[in-house]
Amino acid sequence: MKFKRSEELYKEGLVHLVGAVNSPVRAFTSVGGNPLFIKKGHGSKITDVDGNEYIDLVLSYGPMILGHRHRKVRRGVAKALRSGYSFGASTENEIILAKIVCDAFPGMDKVRFVNSGTEAVISGVRLARSFTGKDKIIKFAGCYHGHQDSLLVAAGSGLATLSLPGSKGVPEGAVKNTLIATYNDLESVKVHFEEHDDIAGVIIEPICGNMGVVIPQNKFLVELKEYLKSKGALLIADEVMTGFRSKFGGAQELLGVEADITCLGKVIGGGFPVGAYGARNEIMEEVAPLGGMYQAGTLSGNPIAMAGGISTLTELKRQNPYDQFNDTAATIETILLETAKKYNVDLVVNRFGSMMNPFFTKGKVTNFEEAQTSDIKKFAIFFWAMIKNGVFLPPSQFEAWFLSSAISKRDIKKIAVAVDKAMLAVSKM
Ligand SMILES: *Cc1c(COP(=O)(O)O)cnc(C)c1O
What we know:
Keywords: Cytoplasm, Isomerase, Porphyrin biosynthesis, Pyridoxal phosphate. The chain is α/β, with parallel strands linked by helices. It folds into 2 domains: 4-69 and 321-427, Alpha-Beta Complex (Aspartate Aminotransferase, domain 1), CATH 3.90.1150; 71-319, Aspartate Aminotransferase, domain 2 (3-Layer(aba) Sandwich). The protein is 39% helix and 14% strand. It has helices spanning 4-16, 71-81, 92-104, 117-132, 157-161, 172-175, 186-195, 220-231, 250-255, 281-284, 303-319, 322-342, 368-371, 376-388, 409-427, and strands at residues 38-42, 45-48, 53-56, 110-114, 136-140, 178-181, 199-204, 234-238, 261-264, 275-279, 348-352, 355-359, 391-392, 401-402. The strands form 3 sheets. Strands 4-10-9-8-7-5-6 form a 7-stranded mixed beta sheet, sandwiched between helices. Strands 1-2-3-13 form a 4-stranded mixed beta sheet. Bound molecules: pyridoxal-5'-phosphate (PLP).
């Protein structure tokens, strides 16, 4: 397999782009080699600039849930393009998408659209502070909530991949109201409430995908919600990754928990830049122009991006691929575990719906500390063998793999062949 054109573009890219990427998760720092440049995508597959084809398990880190260039999304966006790109005034598409979103999440009467997951979380946290009049926010180690200053501590994902404890350039003052707890450990939340009386709420990935996939154990989320209610604090569900992916109504629908504030991104725009935050009326009425919490955006609710979201979610609802996702993920899990056993490689697989990934470790992975026991050198070998056998994975042990509804039985067979070769390579390390 040749990567000549990717290598050329990488060198060119280094001149005017930082590390030739526009998001550090796309760099190949932790797996070695140069990042691949992608030319096009179709259905379950993407093709790089050297003409190599891959089954895509990155899917733009989640948004492309229907696979690439779905016909109906293309049609919806093309239609919107004919009417204009942005007006700085309201359009009907915003109302249509808002209704789809509010219908999907029972705890959401109103929604505000923004342009990214990061923006959704910045605003969701501000809203929790505005509504409660309190400043402190608890987050869990290993959960990623976008790149805003106050939440860039113990933030998993890209930081964990680059072995960074936090980000430079974040002033101490910006994180002084951030408290860290341990995922799946309610006691670690209670300790903070015993020490502080100004906690506005807890932000959580209801199914974590940013330290690799980590699943809430037993009744963790339900008990967390009950506890917060008893303390008058809010539960902020960061469903940027899980919204419309775990289930149409997100992880909340699946786990039977209703958050006070929900943040969305990724799938909601189907590949176009859309984020959103929403809550019941009483909370959303804090937001300007109804209330005193200011949040704005020149391109927010952009009609083209709204059209991408409307067509993606409409088709997703029609397809209802969630049972199929479970079956496919279970099949891939079996392939991974049986192949690992065949070659004597220690492996744990975590999965939830269409999110999954293996950890090269023993035992179980239920929090960030356990995720970090994974052997990232083994992952790097595995990653490159998968690439060379036609499967595109995130270049990091700490990112989830995603499934699209376009994946076929033939794709899964191809994945099985690649996993066999990759696990053999790992066993020879
Ligand atoms: C991706 C992600 C974000 C950030 O979204 P961007 O669109 O990258 O800004 C926030 N929270 C979670 C849980 C995410 O997975």
